[in-house]
Description:
This protein has helices at about 50-60, 80-85, 110-125, 155-175, 190-200, 210-215, 220-230, 245-250, 255-260, 275-285, 305-320; strands spanning about 30-35, 65, 90-100, 130-135, 175-180, 205-210, 235-240, 240, 265, 290-295. By secondary structure, it is an alpha/beta fold. Helix 3 (about 110-125) runs parallel beside helix 4 and helix 7 runs parallel beside helix 10.
Amino acid sequence: MTSLSPQSSPASSPRPSSPSSPQSSLSRIRVGSAPDSWGVWFPDDPRQVPWRRFLDEVSASGYEWIELGPYGYLPTDPAVLRDETARRGLTVSAGTVFTGLHRGPDVWESTWAHVSDIAALTQAMGASHLVVIPAFWRDDKTGEVLEDSTLTPAQWRHLTTQTERLAHEVRERYGLRIVVHPHADTHIDSEENVVRFLDAADSSLVSLCLDTGHYAYCGGDSVKLIETYGERIGYLHLKQVDPAILARVRAEEMPFGPAVAKGVMCEPPSGVPALEPVLAAAQKLDVDLFAIVEQDMYPCEPDKPLPIAQRTRAFLRSCGA
């Protein structure tokens, strides 16, 4: 998922499966989807499907878990949203926030004003995760460079200490666990930067939302990361990249937004990384994990997401999820 605007222990057990069902092989994985898979990046955009259609179609695709998406896309009144999700058999797994914490204490008040509204809605919906995405160093539409793509040592210290502060406050005030999402065109992207961040941040406060697509986009190996830092993996986003388009993106130094418009994030199982070994590695952690499908498709035709979502859900069932 990407946007320049605002956004558990699972609340209930997954549906039981028969002994012969492959679903039992990934019994600790809770699969869901998100507005991102319907081309939703912003709270309000005429090129996006209406929120009721998203809820109808994600339910029709066989998913039971969803994320909130950009804050304001789905209703922000908890009573309304609880009614709309419950009657479609849907439960919220997490909210999402965008932060620029490497900029230090000066941005704390504006960050908290953004985070607190989303955290309150996330808590009210019974979820217990908040996905935290770092700020972009270049505009994901225009490609305008907004700041240096490499952080200074002081900025790294700000990033880790302010993220720890955010994790503490969110946990104390809302009972939520933050999971930091490595993302293309941010400062937490490549294996080097992800590992640097994990090694610096307090493991009792800060976990990772491993997005398999973004990590592959930035050259990382998701299975290796799970096997090496398994205790820090608190949440998964399932996504694949098209290697041929990615090669062009890298050659042209294309910003993330135009890369998505070119189709760099593709329908599984046609891209990389292969999701079966990722899910198998996650299952071996022997903890309950959400695995939320996020196929970036902004912008897209309104009739495109539903059949992709249905095929993707069927594919994941074939993997045992």
